[in-house]
Design brief:
single chain; mainly alpha
Length: 340
């Protein structure tokens, strides 16, 4: 009798763990460890200092984009424009600094505002015009992509990159290493510090501010939130604007990393960002998600892509693997919600 009760208790605990919000996050972290060990064993080039730094740099940009997307998906929305808004923000930053000659802090502010305005427009179109997020942000994606091409064409007569040739210090914002100057054995790029700093800010907003609480409430039950007296339209607009600000920050980071603004860059980044968020445990149905889970998902995506590239897997098959992982992550979330 006691044995059956203990067995039932064990099964109940297992089901409770599977239903918990931390379940998918734990699965993602475990998968990250397994992938890291696997690639370290099969390739002698994976676990090297330069390659690990490359993974960190790749995660920095995708991770910052994913932070903003986390807030949107928690509201049961979607933002397909983050990649091209990032490119547009990088372009406006480059124009402000390299063409107009503005001080670097002002140029960075221009890039951040570019992303914020794009996100604000997304929010207004979705909340005021009642256009579905998929359609609204798809339109913004196309507009931002076009503007990123129009700006250099209008300035130089042709579509070409804008380089920070006269401001080499701009590159050091992300590629320099504050930690490396203190501990030479750990030349961690500043871009990684920017990612973790942005993650701390995002976590504070999500867990400690009214914006974060209303994001969760809207994603859990938008109609009930509206009936409780919350101005859902205003808060939705603010959330999309916040996502745009993170896209603007990612644009500044990638421009500094490449020491240039590439007009054609950004396509596909939105899919990687959404994948990182979903893999990290944020539900596409809305109402739940964590910044830590998003970071884990971003590192998993970067590690997987890097490992497959080192093994010589063609890019098209890398996309196949990534897509399969996203489908699996969404399916696990569906199973978890059914169990709950």
């Amino acid at each position: 009798m006691a044995t059956r009760e203990a067995s039932a208790t064990t099964r109940l605990s297992a089901r409770t763990l599977f239903r918990s919000e931390a379940a998918q996050k734990l699965l993602a972290f475990g998968a990250l460890i397994v992938i890291f060990i696997f690639f370290s064993v099969v390739s002698p080039f994976f676990l090297t200092r330069d390659n690990v730094i490359g993974i960190l740099l790749a995660t920095a940009v995708n991770g910052i984009l994913a932070l903003g997307v986390t807030f949107v998906i928690i509201t049961a929305g979607i933002d397909l424009s983050v990649g091209t808004v990032m490119t547009l923000s990088a372009m406006t930053t480059a124009v402000a600094i390299a063409v107009w000659g503005l001080p670097i802090p002002l140029g960075i502010l221009v890039g951040l505002l570019t992303g914020g305005v794009a996100g604000l427009v997304n929010g207004l179109v979705i909340s005021r015009m009642k256009i579905p997020p998929f359609v609204a942000t798809l339109g913004m994606m196309m507009m931002a992509r076009g503007l990123a091409l129009v700006i250099p064409a209008a300035l130089f007569g042709s579509v070409k990159p804008v380089y920070f040739t006269d401001t080499p210090v701009f590159n050091q914002i992300t590629m320099g290493s504050v930690i490396g100057s203190v501990i030479p054995a750990l030349p961690v790029p500043n871009a990684v510090l920017i990612l973790f700093g942005a993650a701390l800010i995002a976590s504070f907003i999500l867990t400690k501010t009214i914006l974060g609480r209303y994001a969760v409430a809207i994603g859990s039950n938008e109609e009930a939130t509206r009936l409780s007296g919350v101005n859902v339209a205003n808060w939705k607009t603010a959330i999309y604007a916040l996502c745009g600000l993170f896209s603007g920050l990612a644009g500044v980071v990638i421009a500094s990393r490449l020491n240039s603004a590439q007009p054609g860059l950004g396509a596909g980044y939105e899919l990687d960002a959404i994948a990182a968020v979903v893999i990290g445990g944020t539900s596409l149905s809305g109402g739940e998600g964590t910044i830590l889970g998003t970071l884990i998902g971003a590192f998993l995506m970067s590690t997987l892509t890097n490992g497959l590239r080192i093994l010589g897997v063609p890019q098209e098959w890398q996309m196949v693997v990534t897509g399969a992982i996203v489908i699996l992550a969404v399916y696990l979330d569906i199973l978890r919600r059914r169990a709950r």
